[in-house]
DNA sequence: ATGAAAGCGCTAACAT
DNA sequence: ATGTTAGCGCTTTCAT
């Protein structure tokens, strides 16, 4: 047989997960180049200890043979890890969370931020009711830290993870008694911006769409109520519809409200999806947007500007968010403290509120 | 969405990347338990060779000490790898592709399919013009194979990758001379379904929105033209607007058409985003949807049913797609042949076409 | 400038 | 049932 000398014992290449057999390794390159593995290693890592000539020769040889290094071995030896786990919670019932374009675009933003810094992004989904499992890929040594997109109702579990020393960054609101690092938009400010704008446009009777049991929506609602009070409006000026992030449910609830003859002239939604979903229902009941009812969304997903009418919304700085979360995580991994970060949001005025 | 990734910095091997020091390892557990590492290994892996008593004792000890195994070491030893790389191309100019909800939901579907099978999903973004770089994480030994979401214009590069032996599955059209495995919707059939339906609704003058230079759109267009011919219509009955996947551009082009006085009674779009984006422009020019112009989209993203009017569209089986791609990839990884797969699509009729 | 050799944390023969 | 031992593929002293 013309196998390479010192051929490994016949290792029956098992099913699926086996590393491809006969894969070139450093020893092969070394043998072919007539040098030692040490030299190959140094050459491939651009060490100046090898002569420029051999370095080039080896580099080219490796390239031409399509050799690539084994990361597991390298990581083991170096005790390194450059993988970050990004965990996306999903709602067991609706599964809606992850299909919301906002969270998906956050994923893109994180992918960019991590790629730029030379980190790998490992994505996993997890039941939103069991966020304590989020640390799995950290525990198993696969990832050096966890970025969680959405804190939901899991404040306590997340605190527990942090207490266990899991490097953890969560997209969400900054809460009291918080021992993990959160990065989030300025929800209070966002709620205020949207509401103030609507009040300025003459709106007086509001419908609030969201999930006030989650910290983010709760803060937005507080911002909303704050502005109401500031304008001298009664709290009853706002009717809160707890529809979660479920567009279908938002339509049903708003439809019911209209059938009941409840009157309102503004909708404040906790996502652009909710906001745009509700427009056709309003039309169906003879309410023109923005003439009769002004609508403001949240997130400024790409879609918002193409909606009909183009949607006024509170823009969350997605690209910035990815960068901030990654930076915060790397701080935590380095053992340094990473204070929560609140990112500024911005009102983008389009037609849906211009009455 | 986020900014295009800057050129990856030559990684500053900052502190952050070091495996946490003082991390427990098997030897520690062994010492504390008063057994050998081999026994610990066996116990933790549930081998029946260790007595049930010690197995339980060790398992509990490890748990209580918060010990977790080092995956790199395990993988190295086992010559295993359970990581699949999912690569999302982005268009350097528009960056629209990846922000299209369809591709993002595909990501979710893949995450599910991989998680179910115990594989990790590594996500990276890559310039659509340089798909040959898609194999990076395979080359580096990080991933056992590559799933690429979208083939774009890169047929040749993909063939080259396949020739190099990279286990590769691509979401896209099945092409002649194809040496990689593709999984895709039935684009020809989808184009036919949409068109036949519109013809049945009495439409005779069509606008086709898409990027006919990509295989997928090209097939849909062929399906479209096929049905036109079948119905005895001239090829001129269809005006093709090559707008890519760019919603803004679609609006501009359709607006221009209307201003030129070009008349048409149907729009066939290659994505739901394009289809819904165009509706407001039609309205602006006094065309009611569906009364004056019927509109059909493609993909059936969640959003489609909430659009105004609810969008008739060709549904792509996203959940199925994730499963099929993963299965095909595992076949390739196992060294077996994986023929291209074409998944059935389905017309979902909603209001936008009911005239 | 290059090589020999040790060992990263784990698993699996092969003992016992 | 448990321990001993030999590596997995790499990097890095320490020699030469």
From TrEMBL, chains A, B:
It comes from the Bacteria. InterPro entries: HTH_LacI, LacI/GalR-like_sensor, Lambda_DNA-bd_dom_sf, Peripla_BP_I. Residues 1-15 have a biased composition (Pro residues). Residues 26-78 form the HTH lacI-type domain. CDD domains: HTH_LacI, PBP1_CelR. GO terms for molecular function: DNA-binding transcription factor activity; transcription cis-regulatory region binding. Residues 1-21 are annotated as: Disordered. The keyword Transcription regulation applies. This is LacI family transcriptional regulator.
